[in-house]
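Step 1: inspect the first sequence and its tokens.
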Amino acid sequence: MATELADGIHWFELTGVNAYLVEDDVLTLVDAGTPFDAPAIEAGIKDAGHTVGDVERVLLTHYDFDHAGALAHLTDLDATVRAGAIDAGLLTGERKPPLGNHKGLLQRATGPFVRSPVFPVEPIADGERVGSFTAHHTPGHTPGHTAFVSEERSAGFLGDLVFEGSGALTSSPWLVSYDTAQVETSVRSLAERTPPFDVLGMGHGVPFVRGGDERLADLAAN
């Protein structure tokens, strides 16, 4: 099922994780849930008035089992995936998560369930524009974690940089992050760099439909 957060911005509530569909310059999927979420994503795209084959771009906030898992399972998907360089390498198999980090070990354990997609996976640089979105490198949860913010769409997709619970934002916790000090630095940096935006979509929790930049700024201040 698709929930419209704003004109042309749809939220898919999946198995404990979120994905989003944006009618940008091309139809864009933001994140892709677990390997078991492909049917729900396909149904959500149909509910939003499109087909999987209409999707031309995937913006991947980071490589994790619950954000990249369904990519290889979406029938008829033939899109270009854009992700931070390190996480793009993890998705393609060119890199391996480090054994010396607890989150890296978790990624190693779940890695066999995440198949590399057959379509292109291209790294995206900090500050690069793609459609109406600007990519912001926000490491900490993962080394290549990237947030995507569009002033034109008045929306920001922050992946697992932040979590929502009971209407409040928190930063990514130690248990699921490579480096929480780096997470906090990324939160403050992103709050300083982004233009005003309303819709704030995170990987886990209920998205905000107004005042997204203000909520991010409040978290950064605290």
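Step 2: inspect the second sequence and its tokens, then contrast the two.
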Amino acid sequence: MAKKVALITGASSGIGKDTALVLKDMGYKVYGAARRMDKMKDIEQKGVSIMSLDVTDEESMIACVDSVVKKEGRIDVLVNNAGYGFYGAIEDVPMEEARKQLDVNLFGLARMTQLVLPTMRKQHAGKIINISSMAGRVCTPFGAWYHATKYAVEGFSDCLRMEVEPFGIDVVLIEPGAIKTDWGIIAANHLQEVSAKGAYKKQANRVANYFKKAYTSNSISKPELISNTIARAVRAKKPKTRYLVGYGAKLSVFSKHILSDRMYDKIIKKVMR
């Protein structure tokens, strides 16, 4: 029997890279895809096939999926992991950057999904695993565009799930809390680049410092927690529609659910000082 095939975007670091190795160890033929091919040489040496992919480039996405289908004849799992966080006051973030974040975090995910669906429908089987975030269900100051992309991924995935269920395809949302990757430092740096000197500088610097402290601590969750959760969803005959995991995720979402908006705002601003 031919090996099942997994395609993972954003496989050059963090969750994507770790997931590629976990699925390979599960017996999958794994294709790790990202812009930075040099950052994937280590997983290539461990048996992962690496590919160049830019999820903001139509030709790149088509070539990636077509290549996998041509070589393997199937795609059983798509992990839409590529994404990033650009923080800054809404007033300060250039619209060009806002559009770029939507292109990567939402439209790239959506287009990769479109491209694998014909193959999965033909197989009458497949799993599409979208890496969202607790940020798709809660909010923080200066993260408007990032939160907007993740809220959109949540709604997109819910609609997709209902559409493809008759074809034997599962859609799963992974909603990580704070994970020890470069994400928080990058977000903090962006925040300071655009908002640390203007009208929002006092609060912006506080939030940036909070991120840097939090994401360099040992208290937040490691990427392996997320990759192992993805593996659990891949193994499951009937996976959950959502996996809310990682540092602060369940408490944050529960708090947002039970508190009034103003009370939630007050607590978040107090925590992120």
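Step 3: confirm your contrast with the notes below.
The longest strand covers residues 169-176. The longest helix spans residues 95-123.
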